[in-house]
Amino acid sequence: MLSSFTTFSFPTTTLFGAGALKELPARLAQIGLRRPLVVTDGGLLNTDAFCSLAAALGEKAQGDRWFLYSGVHPNPIENDVREAAEAFRQNACDGIIAIGGGSPLDVGKAARVLVKRPGFNLAKFYDETDWSGLAPFIAIPTTAGTGSEVGRSSVITLDATKRKGVLFHPQLLAKLVILDPELTRGLPPKLTAATGADALTHCIESFTCPVFHPMCDGIALEGIRLIVEALPRAYRDGHDLTARGKMLVAAAMGAIAFQKDLGVVHSMAHPLSTLCGMHHGLANALCLVAGMKFCAARKPGLYRRVGIACGFDLMKVPGIEADRITIEFIGQFLADLGLNTKLREHGVKPAQLDALVAQAVDDPCHKTNAVPVEKEDFRKLYLEVL
Ligand SMILES: NC(=O)c1ccc[n+]([C@@H]2O[C@H](COP(=O)([O-])OP(=O)(O)OC[C@H]3O[C@@H](n4cnc5c(N)ncnc54)[C@H](O)[C@@H]3O)[C@@H](O)[C@H]2O)c1
Ligand SMILES: [Fe+2]
Questions:
Q1: Is the C or the N end of the chain the one with fewer CB within 10 Å?
Q2: Residue 37 structural domain
Q3: Are residues 196 and 160 in the same domain?
Q4: Ligand 1, residues 81, 125, 177, 191: which to mutate, most atoms within 8 A of Cβ?
């Protein structure tokens, strides 16, 4: 076994380091997987990341010792999960390797539910409590944003509601995560920025949400520090493997932190994906500053420690001033990544406002926001960023 990679467990066993993917065959043998199903999306098939995976598994062994489902949509739908589970059954697979961004990772994670219970309606996920015995799952992210690889949840747009549903259960956790910065080298700057902004939003919203979880708070602050340092570098130079590695770790930290929960920005972002097809990270990025201003106005000083994590000396500054400095910094940080556009520049229409507001109010994330959010608040917030 190669010794140049780092392995740690928190709680998922994570193999970290440039080139770590090469260890996959040895790890598959350890776990006892002989016929894995690889779950990904069509876009990934043309990337170096996917070629590296195919090489690691043996290109000629596809259809014999490993199998492929590549039909995952961005903002995945229930049918993607059904199809992946069907491919698993048809090929008598014994585990799932998901490679890609949050979309394939979430589908790969959830497909095991339908492997265990064929024909099960995912909208009824919480009617069941025993999800033990799911097929082993290996997660290999190629974006650094969602952190889905270390999360216990899978975000799927459900048939029953046409909204993003979060399937959450500890049994959904991956058995092994491979964080290999080589696989994010080819991620284009726009996606690097948008997915990184998702990770940043996870860290900021989870730190400021009032649920008691001091461990997550510490992780969120360190995640912010890493993102502030590494995201501009990864955006400017995709081949900066140190920055790419830091972003992978920070994204995983963001997802661990949001076990605490999230807030108003994610409740604004989810309808922008389901109703307008917007990329999740971009949606968060375009709503983040408005959401922070909204919260700070009602809870002065909320962002002091976020600002300190960004590198400012704010210990003795009045709360309102600390918030102003922090929010101004985040606004400029996003602008430098090209993330300072308005929703309408991405095709969102004023006529969609009522539907967006209605879905945002129903979204569970804002229930744990730093301050309460009402329907009219969502309307004003959307108008601010429209
Ligand atoms: N489970 C969770 O905890 C969690 C958390 C946050 C978000 N999400 C979900 O994750 C999804 C978003 O995931 P995402 O932001 O990673 O995007 P994504 O998975 O939808 O991928 C976006 C695009 O990037 C491409 N891509 C991915 N890696 C690439 C690479 N290395 N090189 C070139 N192209 C590459 C894909 O082909 C795709 O076209 C949303 O559905 C969101 O709701 C889940
Ligand atoms: Fe997110």
A1: N
A2: 6-184
A3: no
A4: 191
| Residues 6+ positions from 224 with CB-CB distance below 8 Å | 200, 203, 204, 207, 306, 309, 310
Q: Give 141 or 6, the one with higher predicted confidence.
A: 141
Statement: residue 383 has pLDDT above 90: yes
Nearest Cα residue to atom 5 of ligand 1: 146
The pairing of strands 36-41 and 6-9 is unpaired
Best mutation site among 137, 155, 179, 256 for ligand 1, i.e. most ligand atoms within 8 A of its Cβ? 155
Residue 9 has pLDDT above 90, yes or no: no
Q: Is the four-CA dihedral 86, 89, 90, 92 of positive or negative sign?
A: positive
**For atom 10 of ligand 1, which residue has the closest CA?**
102
Task: Decide if pLDDT at 3 tops 60.
Answer: no
Which ligand 1 atom is the nearest neighbour of the CA of 41?
Answer: 37
- Range in 4-8, 95-99, 200-204, 370-374 with the lowest mean pLDDT: 4-8
- Which of these three, 167, 184, 201, is where a domain ends? 184
User: Does one domain contain both 230 and 337?
Assistant: yes
- Give the CATH number of the domain where residue 229 resides: 1.20.1090.10
Q: Assess whether 60 and 171 both reside in one domain.
A: yes
DSSP-derived letter for residue 92 is T
Q: Are strands 153-157 and 137-141 parallel, antiparallel or unpaired?
A: unpaired
* 7 pLDDT more than 90: no
Quote the pTM value. Answer: 0.96
Residues with CB under 5 A from ligand 2 (ion): 198
Q: Is the CB of 271 under 6 A from ligand 1?
A: no
